Amino acid sequence: MSRRLLDRQVELVEYLTSSAAIFDDAGDAPIAVPHGLHRGRLHLEARFSHQKRMEKIAGVLPRTFALMGARRAVIGRDFAAACPPTDISRLSNARQFQAFLGPWWRRRKARPACVPDVAACETACAAVRAYRDSGEPAGRDSPAGAVRRARGAVLLRCRYDVRPLFETGGARDGAGDVRPAARDTPLAVAAGPDAEPRIFELSPAVFALLATLDDWTDAAPFTATPQSASLLRMLRQSGLVEAGR
Amino acid sequence: MKTASTPAVGFGYRAVINDWTRRNLARFDVLEVTVDHCISGGAAARSAIFDLVGRIPLTAHGVGLSIGTDVPLDLAYLDDVAAVVERLAAPAYSEHLAFTRVPGRDLANLLPLPRTEAVAEQIVAKVRAVQSRVPVPFLLENITYMFEWPDSKMSDADFLNLICRETGAGLLLDVENVFLNAANHGFDPYAFLDDLDSGLVQEVHMAGGITVEEPGHVFLADSHSHPVPDEALDLLAFALARHRPQTIILERDERLDAFDEILDDVDRIRACVASQPGTRDVAPAVGSAG
């Protein structure tokens, strides 16, 4: 009995997304060439698909890729082996890469040590842009007198203060002299008035507060004192909090 | 607008050169919109595309259906396609005869199907489902491929003819893909064009790729990055002598800032069209494609 087409397609795509096919070697996890198919041609198909995927990711994480330097090749190889593509979108692939890169980089104590934080920040900026581009209206179905963390805003806890790298294209070309300071840095990324992502450093208390505001919450406690009302106003102006209508 | 026998010549709309495209709208008879950019692209991209409605005829092309994957079609996706097609007032909707993904993995690259009667039967059923869901003529596009399945006994043309004959679907003939496949797999591209059923070709894609040299062999890749090769224009002329497509679209995805090359390619395609006996140009108009 002949095999189901889907089984053959699954076998082919699993092969094409394997290290063996992409890099034309057996690697640590040898996988058989699907029966009757030409190994050399499958290698070309796999290599081109992988290159296109990595170009998508590099487009989202340009600073990260610049800082990775010569390690790009080995990271790309390890990434391909560990994380087959599950989605066509640039952001999904970048998220997958960022999640892979952090543990990889830290395990090897690679330098500069700030790279995982840079990747997280770039991914957050891309997520903010994607939310902005989605056109989802802010505060839809929102209860009056309530507040929540802005849907498009992203919170990040970084080990390095990487913000200088995001000022005027820092490290985009890999030649920047900026050395981020090593310190626990609570950050938030949100769309600014020009709709471009802006990165804010937050105090630990404000970071913790924003982390709790997943859902609509009565705003009354935040306006109980002039200081808290001022804070709420500032968070709204920064695009980090949205208010119900 | 072109006469009934003269195809409209246009360009595949790309958001990154939106401003340039709008400034040069008069150079094209039609723009091809990728429906997936309307479905999953951002609000700004969608708005820029829909703003073109009424300014120039638009036709609809898809990259996200993966009609060849042996799983049920994504009907919600098709409903989104139908809505976009209606909004664009597109006269047809085209997709690749290929698969790009399987459950859990998405290669984001067009892969060929085994060219067998059994697979054709599966595709026929899916084409009918698409036709029942998207209320404009459906066209299948021939793809370029690096490898072939060992049980592909039918020729490319026979496979396409069978599916289109059974369903009434048209063919979006990618001439560059025919050129590349013929060079890479060693068949006669003119024989392929001759073997296509009469009247099958409704739209045409033109593009230019690159030559890749690997140890042991050289092959051509469909990179949509360079001028249309003369050989592909020769094939276009041959195809136009046998078929009457409504639309010819130049595709470009790389080196999009090579504006002179794009306009020059459009002019070369127009010249090829004009060289066909019985064609004549009249002033372009807005309102309907083709």
Write structural notes for this entry:
The complex is a heterodimer of chains A (about 240) and B (about 290). In chain A, helix 4 packs antiparallel against helix 7 and helix 6 (about 90-105) runs antiparallel to helix 7. Helices cover about 45% and strands about 15% of the residues of chain A. Chain A is α+β, with helices and mostly antiparallel strands. Helix content of chain B is about 35%, strand content about 20%. Chain B is built from 10 helices and 12 strands. In chain B, strand 1, helix 1 (about 20-25) and strand 2 form a beta-alpha-beta unit. Chain B is globular, with a radius of gyration of 18 Å. Mean pLDDT of chain B is about 95; it is low at about 280-290. The interface of A and B includes residues 9, 38, 85 and 88 of A.
Supply the key terms.
heterodimer; A: 245 residues; alpha+beta; 3-stranded antiparallel beta sheet; 13% strand; elongated; B: 290 residues; alpha/beta; two-stranded antiparallel sheet; 12 strands; disordered C terminus
* Shape estimate of chain A: elongated
Oligomeric form: heterodimer
Question: Radius of gyration of chain B, rounded?
Answer: 18 Å
Q: How many helices of chain B in DSSP terms?
A: 10
N to C succession of SSEs of chain A: HHHHHHHEEEEHEHE
Distance between the termini of chain B: 7 Å
**What is the distance, rounded to the nearest whole angstrom, between the alpha carbons of the first and last residues of chain A?**
63 Å
Let me know the largest β-sheet of chain B.
8 strands, parallel, barrel
Task: Give a quick precis of the structure.
The complex is a heterodimer of chains A (245) and B (290). Chain A has helices at residues 5-16, 19-23, 39-60, 62-68, 72-82, 90-107, 115-134, 204-212, 226-237, and strands spanning 146-149, 154-161, 181-191, 197-201, 217-218, 241-243.
